From TrEMBL:
This is Probable membrane transporter protein. It comes from Veillonella parvula. InterPro entries: TM_pro_TauE-like, TSUP/Inactive_protease-like. One of its GO terms (cellular component) is plasma membrane. Belongs to the 4-toluene sulfonate uptake permease (TSUP) (TC 2.A.102) family. It comes from the Bacteria.
Length: 264
């Protein structure tokens, strides 16, 4: 445990900054860092407290990142609105279930799914040449609303129940299932995440799952980190973003598989 209160708050502000910066670049939020860190530093917390506190910080990360991406005009607003609304029921259900959901089999299966997804993203990313969709503009883009809505419900649920943010699912889906250009996918995912996490946070707040003494410093760092992340993402090539996404998905998959305890 960190004893010095000043060092304590500075540490978590820096953590929030770095987590949000990375999360905004790949459109996933900072939950990949927040959740394992909270579990390590605060073993006395219940899973609901870990998830609720992480989700609060991810919400601030996503809102700040969304504002930055909107200024860059990279968000497909029509898709963001439709898919955000689709996350509502999933986010509420996930937040309510986070207190008693302990299905190790589900966690293991989901981890395996994400592991396969990371390999698929990596394989597709390292093919020769750029995806033809990378050159599409907002006016040229078409997509399946039914696929997007179905995925968004699932993303809202996963986001609230694990506190990780749903961009790790949304971004690959937007890119490979709906043909979004990579930069547009990460930006749109960030806007969807801003809405879905807000719904999840409200539910966790009602259930008293959020530890504000930790959520506030990490969120302050996340607000600034998201702005920096959006600027960095603007300068990165699509392949670089997808490589980071593949690594992040792989890390999440391994964490879920190990956490399930099924492998011993």
């Amino acid at each position: 445990m960190i004893d010095n209160i000043v060092v304590f708050y500075i540490f978590f502000t820096i953590v929030g900054f770095l987590a949000a910066m990375i999360g905004t670049i790949i459109g996933a939020g900072g939950g990949l860092v927040f959740v394992p860190l909270f579990m390590y530093w605060f073993p006395e917390w219940s899973p609901s407290m870990v998830v609720g506190t992480s989700l609060f910080s991810v919400m601030c990360n996503a809102i700040s990142g969304s504002i930055a991406y909107l200024k860059q005009k990279k968000v497909y607003i029509n898709a963001a609105i439709i898919f955000s609304l689709a996350t509502f029921p999933g986010a509420i259900l996930g937040a309510q279930m986070s207190g008693w959901f302990s299905g190790k089999g589900f966690m293991f299966a989901f981890g395996c799914f994400m592991l396969c997804a990371s390999v698929l993203i990596g394989f597709k990313n390292f093919r020769k040449g750029e995806r033809k969709e990378e050159s599409l503009t907002l006016e040229q883009l078409s997509y399946s609303k039914s696929i997007g809505i179905s995925i968004s419900f699932f993303v809202g649920f996963i986001s609230s129940i694990f506190g990780i943010g749903g961009g790790l699912i949304h971004v690959p889906a937007l890119i490979y299932l709906m043909g979004f250009p990579t930069h547009m996918a990460t930006a749109t995912s960030q806007s969807i995440l801003a809405v879905s996490t807000t719904v999840g946070v409200i539910t966790h707040l009602i259930e008293s799952h959020i530890i504000f003494s930790i959520a506030i410093p990490t969120s302050i760092g996340a607000i600034f980190g998201a702005q920096v992340g959006a600027r960095i993402a603007k300068r990165l090539k699509a392949k670089a973003i997808l490589a980071l996404m593949s690594i992040a998905v792989f890390a999440l998959a391994v964490r879920l598989i190990l956490k399930s305890g099924i492998l011993g």
